[in-house]
Write a structure and sequence with these properties.
heterotetramer, B: 492 residues, mainly alpha, 0% strand, D: 662 residues, two-stranded antiparallel ribbon, two-stranded antiparallel sheet, 72% helix
Chain lengths: 306, 492, 224, 662
Amino acid sequence: MISPLSIIFWLLMMLMAPVLPGVINKTKAFFAGRQGPPVFQLYYDISKLLRKTSVYSETSTVVTRLAPLAILFSTLAAALLVPIAFRSAGLSFAGDIILLAYLLGIGRFFMVLAALDRGSAFEGMGAAREVLYSALAEPALFCGLLVLINETSQISLSGIYEKLTTEFWLENPATLLLIATSWMIILLVENARIPIDDPNTHLELTMIHEVMILDYSSKDLALIEFASAVKLAVFSSLLVGLVFSCQGMSVLVQLAVFVAGMLLVSIIIGAIESSIARMKLLHIPKFIVGSGALAIIALILKLSGN
Amino acid sequence: MTTAYALIIMPVITGIISLFISSERARRNLLVIVAFAHLFISIRLCSGSAGELNGVWLGLDQLGRMFLMITSLLFAGSAIYSTVYLDKHPHFNGPAIAGLRMPANSNAIFAACMQFFLAAMTLSILSMHFGLQWIGIEATTLASTPLIYYHRNKRSLEAAWKYMILCSVGIALALMGVFFLAMTTSSHVQQFTPAGLVLFAGYLKIEWLKVAFIFFLVGYGTKMGLAPMHNWLPDAHSESPSPVSAVLSGALLNCAFLGILRIYKVCAAVPEAASFASEMLIIFGLMSLAVSGIFILRQPDYKRMLAYSSVEHMGILALGVGLGGSAIAAAMLHAIGHSLAKASLFLLSGNILAVYASKKVEDIKGLLKTMPITGALWLTGFLAITGTPPFTTFNSEFAILRVAVQSRSWTVAVLYLLFLLLVFVGMLTSFMHMSLGKEGEKEVDGSAGESIWQVFTPAVFLCVALLLGVYLPDFIRDTINGAAFLLGGKAL
Amino acid sequence: MNSIAALLAITCLFLLGSSRLLVSIRMVAFQGVLLGIMPLLAAGSHHLGMGAFALCLTNIGLKSILLPWLLRTALFTSGTRREIEPFIGFGASIMSGVVLLAISGYIVKRLETTAQLSSSITLIAGFFMVFTGLFLLITRRKALTQTLGFLVLENGVFTTGLSLGSEFSVYVELGILLDVFVGIFLMGIMLFHIDKEFDHLDVDRFNELSDLTIDVSETEEVSE
Amino acid sequence: MQQYLIAIALITVGGILAPVIRKHRDVSNIVGAGSAIIGALLALLPVLKVLFSGADFPVLLLSLPLGEASLKLDAVSAFFALPVLVLLPVTALFSGAVSRQEKYGADGYWFFFNTLGAAMLLLLIAANGVVFLVAWEIMSVAAFFLITHRDEIATARSAGWKFLIASHIGTAALMLLFALLAASSGSLEFSQFAVAHFTTGMGSLAFFLALFGFGVKVGLLPLHVWMPDSYTYADAPVSALLSGAMSKMGFYGLLRVLMLLPAPAASWGWVLVIGGLLTGIFAMITALAQSDLKKVISYSSMENAGIILMAIGCSALAMSWKQPLIAGIAMVGALLHVLNHSVCKGLLFLGSGAVSWGLGTRKLELMGGLAKKMPFTAVCFAIASAAISGLPPFNNFVSEFIIFIAGLQTATIEDPAALLLAAIVLAGLALIGGLAVATFARTFGLVFLGASRHDKKQEINEITPLVRAPFIILMLLVGVLTVASPWLLKPIHAVALLIMKDHAGISATASPVEFLQQPIIMVVQFSLALLVLVIAGWQIRQRFFSEGDRSDRMTWDCGYAEPDARIQYTSSSFSQTIVDLFSAIIRPYKHGEKVSGLFPQHASFRTDAPDSFLRYLFIPLFGLVDRGLRPFRALQHGRLHLYICYVAITLLVLLIWKVVVL
């Protein structure tokens, strides 16, 4: 059932995932006219963190210790469900997208619990925002998915991506654009990027993701950082699979297109982060709901097209 | 036939005797003995072992059989209770009033009038002749007025006066109805009884029959407590001693209803008049339900609340008979269920009154804690009176609803449910306030209302109401169905 | 027969117009006499039995002697004012009486088409008396006048019965009479009690028992 | 069947006996709880037999006042008996075990407890309208007395008041429903209803009456107002039983009526789906704003009711579109979710009981850090929270996953309406699920994690070993329902087929069971493997890579040197962002002063969100009725003259209306 090739691809993507934040940072540096940290900076960070010892708050319980692993493993598991390089995913079955979303949900659940575990003044705040925004983002994700299901009559992720043809997108460019935009926004939301969140600041009251991991150090922090990178890779690969379609080409071409696509997504994120400022917190829900609205417009377009 | 006469005359005689007995104990015992003798004879009469009763004046059809049993049973229960009640309310043995006024001992009057009352009710049930029935019903008013005035205070006097005047006026109108009914017969009818008139159904003059029915309905309806003629009812029921309230509500109202049913039976035999009579009954039934709903909600006086609940149930009875078909049988069943539950509640209210000396709902808190048995029975009675399964009232209320829906009377069905709901909300609020919660600040000695004879009758009645809800013995079913057939209805 | 009916109607108008309680009581007593005689006339000579005479005597005895005496006693012992205090003035009462008479006439005219009546004027009188009785009950203030009103109402019902020619057995008639008598008697007794308890006979002030006082305080449904 | 009836009798007798011997407290408790437990176990055998063999037990005839009535145990009844048979013994065990501290066993607790259980069991085998109504009302009344069991507390009384009135309104609709069905079929027997002919309008009327009547019990949107209060102010085991078993009877009734009616119209399905969606969303956003632990859990019951209603609606719509596969999947999902929810909800309510007894309060604002003092309860609550939020690998995820699949499969139909349905189901479920994660993360976090906000001196005890038994049973059941879910599909699908009859047509392709089996096995295996991995990884991390770790430092509060418990994020502040977003719907009360000035002295913030529908719909409505009736009360003014006038006028009106005008 599980093809070796997809497992290899999965391993590859996991290994390459920390590159993506590096690319983003490089892009931002480019726009800012700076040199910027190296593309592989996250690898250095992780290896450095892994060598340190942890410090825990005295209020913390087992949840704090369990959470990083749960977050990482659930993210890795989610990645196993995503089609990589236009091939069938490691695991594929009817409704796997649901499991994917809920695996990410487990990670979020633990992240939030861990944030509440320390009894901090700030972490709870991040947790509150995190749960709200992701609760709003998930429906938007599924709305976009509906169009794809309706087009392909498939309900597994791999099945959908296999059936998505270039012709369809050529006939319905508007639909593609809408869904891609919608999913791009979801990507930004889920991965705590600007304009939702600012991954570079640590002490502002306006943060979401970073504030929740304030108390983590060393190995735990390394795991979480890695998990974040993988999460970004998962969403990026969803987006790449949506936009590009290389069915029936050779493995190498597919791989090349996929890697290029992933890098492109990172560059786009970098470009976005360089060009707009972080949004006011009050506007974020509207922004997310707006992304859902885009998907719904795509749905309506699809329907009227029939 | 002699048994029937005995049934009526015996209480009269013993009533007169008890006026002259000086021993309090003997008087009370006599009352109980008479009540049970009456019950015994009634059972014999109803089971048919005393021979069929089918005379010009007195007769016992299935309708009468049912109402006689209810009345006798209720009276026996109340008689047991009243012996204790008279003990618990010594302060009501007011000062002697000389001269033309009532005799010195109010308890003697009480015992005597109770027995006269029983005789009058029996007469009104057994009499087949319309005129005789009128006499019986008027006699019930007369016999019960002193009972209402038992407590000898302003409020009870006011209640008794209102009862007397309003019911007398109503019944005088019913007498007009009797005369008009006599007019409907062109040729000389052999017997001026329902059966006798039904024989000549084809010759009856419909116009006059309708006029007669209106007079009967308004006249006996006043006595029965149908809105908007019910105004005496809450006053009289709330001011009279509890055993009297129980009999008034559980038995007397039925007797008045029987008066209407007798002419309804005649109407039922004439198609045009039948639909007219049914319509009238439905309208008055719904009006009564509405009125009771309005007044039960936020009713501050629990005995008045029970009284309004009687108005409600009389409305249900009228509605059931008006709807016809198997709803008539259901109404008969409902009469049984209502009598048992209502009598129990009134008797229990006597227990509460004996302890708290207040009829205000707000004064009474935590009955379950101060008076555990009474409190539990009080809540059980609430369930029974609001038609909660498995009490028998649920079966009858549902059967009536079923007929309403079956005959596509949507408005009736919906209004019926709505008013029942209103009553339920009102009663629930009061009953909860009284039964649940902490005890009030006032120290009360609950044991004063908990002696065995004070809870015996309610407990038995409520058990019977419960049992009848799950199992209806054949003799009761036959009686109910027989009564329904008499009125042109169908079996349950 | 018709003349007695007319007399009855006139007594009613008198009752409506009279301001003195004693006069009213006498009027009612007079009505009782008239009513006693009436069945004798109505039955005609062919079946005048002992029963009818007995009935006539009882009627007169009860309604024109015993009950008025009882009411008078009540009036004197109570020591209340002898005037009737109506809600509607005497003049207006008489006018209403005329209207009621007209209504009775109209109803009887309607009914006549459906049945042969032995005497329509008696029926009119009967209806009029019923209406008058109700009118008195509704508009007069005192308990005593209410009793009188009830008596007039009863008399009206009787007259109606007579005019419709409905004949019951003597026992029934006697029973009805007995009921009425005991009823009035009880009312009389209660008049004494009312006088004793309240120091007045004003029924309009009889309104302790009502549901006007249902309080509007907050109940549990609002409490949170 | 006999065994089932004996079980009912045993439970009832135990209930009657227990208060009789209440002088001997322990004996009374053993009799009460023991009869419930043994009775439930006794009934379990025939139920499982029916469920797995598919054979109905023969009809039993009763002679009742309103005619013959039959009892029948079919697979649908048997399925819905499961929540009862699970929660009845578990809650009985719990009540019995804690009866030493609490006042269980006194004042007829066992009587009403066992009556409730017996009434539910009777309800399930009722194949006659009257028996159904009787059992239904006994159930409600028993529940009322259980809710008001602590009747010295005013809120409990008020909750009971609301419950009984709501329930009575529902019953009124049901009475009308059965009267309607009886009018169409001429009998009150279910078997007759099923073969009777209904016009379309009649069928729809019956369905909406049923939805109203049963909607009250399950907590359909505007009819839910009794629910949060009753579950909150009842004792924990009672709440568990009410939410886990009694409200499921509402679904049973709804599905039973669907079985009796002709093929569902599309409008029914839409109403169910939209109603379920609104119920779920409203419940969750209101739950987030609650500051009472049990209120949160209560609203979550409503949320799950919304999910189940959506699934049933989806199934009904698919039936009307003749899509057997989707109809089957959605129905299987709905049924499985019923079972899963009742187990999880039992665990949550019992856990809340343990917490509030340990702490003496239900206020979230006063909790925190309980995980250290009550580790067992914390583990139970954590598992239940994760499960109720629908996170894998727990059982609720499996059933939500099935409903999701129904939604996904609907999206493959080329029909705008189907796509709309899919959008509602998918987006709705996702939103509700997301909010559920938020709610339960918040709840668990605030109760068990962080620093304790309550009085430090207060001694908090973990529950005793005996009291742990019910928790362990329920946790085992969560595990069983998760692991065994692929094999449960078949019997549940048989139940679903019984409910749907052939309304959807015969499936041309795969049956729902075949369709679902593989994905579910995958999901369960995969997520269980993940669970094992995480735990193994954590152990490895703790054993081998924790050298030098220290856990004696203060929480990092951005440099603030003396963080204490008061500095923590509170329940009100946690939900503030979400509450603000939906404040138009939940309309929270906000208390507290704003921060002001250069050197702010004191500031506070607290929100409170009583149910909007109670506040803005039902209280005004009741007030309106009350005010509307007030003028009529002047009619009973006590003046005899006018009373006589009423009589005279009535007479005149009737005479003129009926005789003169005629």
